Amino acid sequence: MELVFDGHNDVLLRLWRTMKEGGDPVAEFLKGTAQGHIDAPRAKIGGLAGGICAIYIPSGDLILKEPDDNGHYETPLAAPLEYLSSLQIGMEKASIALRLEQAGAWRLCRTTANIRKAMADGVFAAVLHMEGCEPISANLAELDVFYAAGLRSLGPVWSRHNIFGHGVPFAYPMSPDTGPGLTDIGFELVKACNRLGILIDLAHITEKGFWDVAKTTDQPLIASHSNAHALTQVARNLTDKQMDAIKESRGLAGLNYAVTMLRPDARDNAATPLSDMIRHIDYMVERMGIDCVALGSDFDGATVPADIHDAAGNQKLVAALRDAGYAPEDIAKLCRENWLRVLGEAWHEKA
Ligand SMILES: [Zn+2]
């Protein structure tokens, strides 16, 4: 079995909803459930040895706008969120992550050595991420506290605007160049992440914001869960020019399993063949090289291909990569080694 370290999931969102409905998120993760995509038993079956787990503040359930006669759609950008309620939800999700660790259900990893040890021990290696920084205020005080709780990765914005910058809408076809980039405070956030050693994730940010981070950061450029715009023209995917910059910085893009970002028609239809995943991987590898492509499933955050179904189906993608002709060392890079390399760099580890 090929162990996978995956660059993006929303399991904390599902577990938080379970908690809000009176359930026990730790028991759900440990014992397993038929809901959603990730829990300990299904991760074990699928070789999902670890991943970057998002603290995401929901904008309500996102409903994609129905396509028009041409198959085009443009879902309006979600409204900005309030700080205090966002902070509360962010704390609740961080608390679930900490309780999972206290229960031995997973390990919160702060170094790549932590990740390798957890994977060797057969314990899910979780890296805490914040997807949209609405729980952080302009003086960045909360950043230090979340860092102390284990936060080692963040995306300044989700697909909405906040005090740090601007996000792209869910729309097809659309360029990622949909508006302004980082605010002045956004630039300060990037500098603080460089100082602390927190990976900066460019998924969901406008193209302008992407270039703003690129000219400011000392880290490799990372889009944790984004695909090729040339194949699926949604605003969330990466243009060739963005991929060239990622390659230049020795960063990476993680393949998003979301069918809306894989299918040529960008429809939310689970009947999406594995060949659509391979087409995006092939394109990204062709453009950026085998060192700059990885996986970023978006498990528990999106509709994934029916053949994958959930974390237990992860090895079907590995088998498809083998069938497509990827060598064992290439598959190891795609499945985990590229993520471990860029995390080590962002976290100031000596090579
Ligand atoms: Zn996302």
Task: Specify the overall morphology.
Answer: globular
**Cofactors, ions, other ligands:** zinc ion
State the fourth-level CATH superfamily.
Answer: Metal-dependent hydrolases
Structural class: alpha/beta
Give the assembly state of these chains: single chain
Main sheet properties: 6 strands, parallel
| Low confidence ranges | none
Percentage of β-strand residues: 5-15%
Distance between the termini: 27 Å
> How many individual β-strands?
11
Radius of gyration: 18 Å
CATH architecture: Alpha-Beta Barrel
Number of helices: 13
Summed over residues and divided by their number, the pLDDT gives a mean of 97
What fold name goes in the CATH topology slot? TIM Barrel
Q: Give the CATH class.
A: Alpha Beta
**How many domains, as an integer?**
1
Q: Can you give the helix content as a percent range?
A: 40-55%
Order of helices and strands: EHHHEEHEHEHEEHEHEHEHHEHH
Describe this structure in words.
- This protein has helices spanning 11-20, 25-31, 40-46, 83-102, 112-121, 141-148, 184-196, 207-216, 240-248, 259-262, 274-288, 314-323, 328-346, and strands at residues 4-9, 48-56, 73-74, 106-108, 124-131, 151-155, 171-172, 199-200, 222-223, 252-255, 293-295.
- With 351 residues, the protein is of the alpha/beta class.
- It starts with a strand and ends in a 5-residue tail after the last helix.
- Bound molecules: zinc ion (ZN).
- This is Peptidase.
- One of its GO terms (biological process) is proteolysis.
